[in-house]
Design a protein that fits this description.
Largest sheet: 5 strands, mixed
Shape: globular
Strand order of the largest sheet: 3-4-5-9-6
Radius of gyration: 26 Å
Number of strands: 9
Number of helices: 28
């Protein structure tokens, strides 16, 4: 009774703002119930979160107070449908915290983080609720549940068991304290990465621009003019700026300067993450131990396709051994090329690799990404990438300017199925800004689910990237790499848009972490397909299609640097696993990171340079002990695309099997079974090795077999 009074008082305290706070009611004044971004202010978030928590806890109390015997409907489904008011605000706040943040939002996130952590643990440690869930679980064999209902029951039971429901006495409060602290730490880590990135301004003069392409020079000049400095050039560490500088600058001293700045981020000073990440991993270890696991990796991998750290390490080391000889050959060739180019013996340093690799690639294949930019004007690329979904799945995309957006750079599109029925909304957000974190990602403002009235509530998803911005004289012209990034995130969005499940928690990308990258990485394969490129790659000035010779260069050069790229990813994966397989807190983070990557190192480590303090995927994202999933999914995507190639890359029947067995199903069934249903067999590693030029076509089974 005391709790109900508290919840009601909290709710009443916020009702005075109900007429202005857009989160206190369903969105009814926008197309398809989309988020009314234009009327949302920072002042709306915290009251809405407080009220949402109170409402959600009150809904939980209704479930636990039900005098009827616990059933799947009155307990599991009722729990699934609870918290909608809270979800409504969080599904806006956190995506914008990454894409359109400011100091006030960061402060709000620090204040609400412990509240949300306490709410989460209050639910998972609710003894009455747990007893009802366990009662349903214990009689599961006698229930007439379909596969999706069975999965919802399983995930609900296991989620509670994995989040402290089995703990007793003081252990419950210890878990609550550790969870709250972890939430604070991961929030701080992410904020530090964004804040420090925005501090870097590298001012250069005309004498410093040797080798840089016109697009980079124009962008730097524009950035300087916007700061009131005519005749100077302003560079930042934004991904497209940094990448282009290392690739094209013929000044090794400036390449080294940029590289050192980029790789020393968050290692010292106000925004250092070194102590933060050490405490994050120590806290995760403490949580794992409290729950009965030896390491956090053991805990984290329990609900994945891999299932255990041993299987992950088997995959990573198998790939390391397969690619190491090729890496040695690549580096020997690159060193010989650099020495010949400079007319003297050259040691290729980490800040030199991209520069010389680009030149060697250009020599071998007459391939220069910069020269291909004119054929990848952004609006044409949008048509091409969207058109891929039209060819494969019959989808169409129509911009709707009546749908509110959160920034002028953002566009919103209605998505229609092949029969003209409405599927959902996709937002595109392409360009860097100070308020956006680096990288690229997909998220959703609203997932797909079947509501209480039996209506299919369709999703609203967004894809966010940091592409080369337009200048005063040119539109946004992308490199093939940026097109590949677009294809990747669009694959995630299709996973969300095509979802057709009963429950939001099992919809779209809510799948095992090492399965979630399959749709995204599968899409990347189309970048090297002539039939795909011919459909949209046209010169932005002349309208001429990309020459066949240029397409051949993209295809022929696809395997260039494959071993380097693989070893780089393996370094990320092994470093992630090392941090989450610790059995005691780490003292020296830099030495620990060096040791973790020793077996896959490409260059000798440079003192003071670390990647862990910026490794947002694992320290502030959802990939702790999970970065390996990119390589795991790469095995799957290569195998899946090989199946398409057997039947035709746009074959309707194969595409329909991929849609119905992978994209539509979300997390409603075991992903291994979904993949077998699509492919007709388990995947093998040979498709990946063949694609990368590591092996000739010959059978070799996946070294980490999927669970049967």
């Amino acid at each position: 009774m005391k709790f109900f009074l508290t919840a009601i008082s909290l709710f009443i305290a916020t009702m005075t703002q109900a007429h202005t706070n857009p989160f206190f009611a369903e969105y009814t004044g926008t197309p398809h119930g989309t988020v009314p971004f234009g009327v949302i202010t920072n002042a709306d978030y915290e009251p809405a979160i407080d009220a949402g928590i109170a409402a959600a806890l009150a809904e939980i109390d209704v479930i636990t107070a039900n005098p009827e015997e616990p059933t799947f409907e009155n307990t599991i489904v009722a729990l699934e449908h609870s918290g909608k008011q809270l979800d409504r605000v969080l599904n806006v706040f956190y995506p914008l915290l990454s894409a359109l943040s400011d100091d006030e939002m960061m402060e709000i996130s620090m204040r609400v983080s412990p509240k949300l952590s306490d709410y989460s643990t209050s639910v998972s440690l609710n003894e009455k609720l747990w007893k009802r869930i366990k009662a349903v679980w214990d009689k599961r064999d006698s229930l007439d549940l379909d596969p999706e209902d069975t999965m919802l029951l399983t995930t609900t039971y296991e989620s509670f068991a994995r989040n402290g429901a089995l703990l007793q006495g003081e252990d419950r409060e210890t878990y609550r304290r550790l969870s709250s602290r972890l939430s604070e730490l991961t929030t701080k880590f992410g904020q530090n990465v964004l804040k420090e990135l925005n501090t870097y301004e590298i001012w250069l003069t005309a004498d410093d621009l040797a080798g840089l392409p016109e697009s980079s020079v124009e962008a730097a000049a524009l950035a300087a003019r916007q700061k009131g400095c005519e005749g100077e050039y302003l560079f930042t560490l934004d991904q497209p700026v940094y990448t282009a500088f290392l690739k094209y600058s013929s000044r090794p001293d400036l390449r080294e300067r940029m590289w050192r700045l980029y790789n020393a981020r968050n290692t010292k000073g106000e925004y250092s993450n070194v102590e933060v990440l050490k405490e994050i991993t120590a806290t995760r270890l403490a949580i794992a131990r409290l729950l009965g696991f030896n390491t956090y990796a053991d805990y984290s991998l329990q609900r994945t396709m891999a299932g255990s750290p041993d299987k992950v390490m088997d995959l990573l080391t198998s790939l390391r051994d397969a690619y190491r000889p090729a890496l040695t050959r690549e580096l020997e060739e690159l060193t010989a090329f650099a020495s010949k180019t400079e007319g003297r013996p050259v040691t290729v340093n980490p800040w030199d690799y991209t520069y010389y690799a680009n030149k060697l690639k250009n020599q071998k294949y007459a391939y220069d990404e910069e020269q291909l930019r004119p054929y990848f004007e952004l609006s044409n690329v949008v048509n091409g990438v969207f058109g891929l979904a039209t060819k494969l799945y019959g989808l169409t995309f129509k911009e709707n300017k009546d749908i509110p957006v959160y920034h002028p750079d953002v566009k919103a599109y209605e998505v229609l199925d092949r029969d003209g029925s409405y599927l959902g909304v996709i937002y595109t957000d392409f360009f860097p800004r100070d308020s956006k974190r680096p990288g690229a990602w997909m998220t959703d403002f609203k997932p797909q689910y079947i509501d209480e009235n039996g209506e299919n509530s369709r999703p609203h998803v967004s894809i966010v990237m940091n592409f080369t911005k337009p200048t005063e004289s040119k539109p946004s012209l992308l490199t093939p790499y940026e097109v590949e990034t677009f294809l990747h995130e669009f694959g995630h969005s299709l996973h969300g848009l095509l979802a057709s499940t009963k429950y939001a928690s099992l919809s779209g990308t809510n799948v095992y972490r090492d399965f979630v990258e399959l749709p995204s990485q599968f899409n990347e394969n189309y970048l090297t397909q002539r039939e795909f490129l011919d459909g949209f790659a046209r010169h932005y000035l002349t309208g001429e299609p990309i020459p066949a010779a240029e397409v051949e260069k993209i295809i022929a050069s696809a395997q260039f640097g494959a071993a380097y790229a693989c070893m780089r990813q393996l370094n990320f994966g092994l470093t992630d696993m090392a941090w989450h397989m610790i059995e005691a807190p780490v003292e020296d983070a830099e030495a620990f990171e060096k040791q973790a990557g020793e077996s896959v190192k490409i260059f000798e480590p440079v003192d003071g340079m670390m990647m862990s303090p910026q490794f947002s995927h694992i320290f502030s994202g959802g990939y702790a002990a999970g970065y390996y999933s990119y390589k795991w999914a790469e095995v799957l995507d290569a195998d899946a695309f090989a199946y398409f190639e057997e039947n035709g890359i746009f074959d309707p029947e194969t595409a329909e099997k991929f849609r119905t067995n992978v994209l539509m199903k979300g997390g409603t069934e075991n992903p291994a079974e979904l993949y077998r249903r699509f492919r007709g067999q388990d995947p093998t590693i040979d498709a990946l090795l063949i694609r990368d030029g590591i092996k000739k076509p010959e059978s070799k089974k996946l070294p980490i077999p999927m669970d049967k």
